[in-house]
Amino acid sequence: MDYLLTDTQKEILALTRQIADGEIVPVRNKLDHEDIFPRDILKTMGDAGLMGVFIPEEYGGLGGSMMDLCLVTEELSRACLGVSTSYGAIALGTLPVLISADDTMRKVVLPKVATGEWIAAFCLTESEAGSDAFGMRTRAVKDGGEYVLNGTKQWITNGGEADFYTVIAITDPSRGPRGASAFLVEADRPGLSFGKREDKMGIRASATREVIFDNLRIPESNRIGREGTGFIVTMKTLERARVAVGAQGVGLASGALDAAVSYAKERKQFGKPIASFQAVGHLLADMALRVESARALLYAVARHIDSGAAEYAMESSMVKVLGSDVAMSVAVDAVQVFGGYGYMKEYPVEKMLRDAKILQIYEGTNQIQRNEIAQALIKRSSRAGQ
Question: Cα(359)–Cα(357) distance, rounded to whole angstroms?
Fold first, then answer.
């Protein structure tokens, strides 16, 4: 379908596809089986300017478009969700700086992210603070002109690989969520350490570790935004990040569909390709319906955000839920089309199925997203009735 992409967006898409097909697809099984962080691929993307698609031109990026970020994310996810997750975590860790940092911090951080020199990570989740993110215990205590951080963040993508971490910590426990603040922590700060690399079911190319703060000191200038605005920074960050997760889902589902169609045309049973059997054809048709429906919503919401919309939390949750649910269902059906071969690690759909599950979990589980959608519907209905 013609989604009316601009010439620049078509160039971004073509460049990403070139890297995905030429650099990622040939090594994705190796990255997955050997838990290799795709640093070289991320460096290639930085050299190509693709790290800067979500960063404004004034800071060395390509413009800061949500749509552009989704196009890159979708195409990477078609090739390998592990690489895509490593890339997405850089955007996730950088968004708080874009959203709330002062211009001095932006001028230091954003150009280095745009060129691929710096890798970022976002530190929110803790062992007792998952869906209830603000049950966190990590503290940042003011001490003169510095803050002292203590605590442990769990399941941090790019943990141990990033050059800086954006960290949400409690500065005033008496104020609940309004007592949280956001901070930038450089990777070379004394007091920063990491747990083991987690042994995950999927997205194994991405590095996931605990990030530990032990009397780590940072200057007050490393605070992102005003003290007490950590909750606002987090919500604004996740509202954008969830759209990118939807793009990951669309990309993975698209890759699984392509693999299934190709296999169905080649695999012969009873003397003819299995694609000619109505049962298989209907399966492929339903997969295609889900992929295009999710893509249409994804692009519509991305453009809605780029238009300057003030409110899009419900829509971002919808994109996240639909994209991830479609990824899971299409990956399951792709394995079914492949039959016994789909269960083997030498075929791509086995990995896609393992990878797809995380999309329904991270950046807020789909159950939590449905709560958010329902609450937003009720709230908007109440406003409309006033």
Answer: 5
Query: Does 386 map to a domain?
Result: no
Are 238 and 367 members of one domain?
yes
Sign of the C-alpha dihedral computed for residues 40, 46, 49 and 55 taken in this order:
positive
pLDDT at 354 over 80: yes
d(CA 274, CA 243): 36
How many domains, the chain? 3
Q: What percent of the chain has pLDDT over 90?
A: 94
Residue 35 to residue 51: CA distance in whole angstroms: 22
Residues 6+ positions from 212 with CB-CB distance below 8 Å: 151, 152, 153, 192, 193, 194, 195
CATH classification at residue 212: 2.40.110.10
Its domain, for residue 361, covers: 231-380
103-114 vs 81-100: helix crossing angle, rounded to 10: 160
Please determine, for residue 135, whether its predicted confidence score (pLDDT) is greater than 90: no
152 φ/ψ angles, rounded to the nearest 5 degrees: -135, 130
Residue 100 and residue 298: Cα distance in Å, rounded? 25
Task: For residues 239 and 376, state if they share a domain.
Answer: yes
CA 326 and chain centroid, separation: 16
Residue 344 confidence (pLDDT) above 70: yes
* Shared-domain flag, residues 253 and 370: yes
Are residue 312 and residue 337 in the same domain, yes or no?
yes
Give, rounded to a whole angstrom, the gap between the first and last alpha carbons of the chain. Answer: 40
Mean pLDDT of 314-334: 98
- Catalytic site residue from 74, 161, 315, 363: 363
Question: Does the annotation mark 363 as catalytic?
Answer: yes
* Residue-level pLDDT at 7: 95
pLDDT at 73 over 80: yes
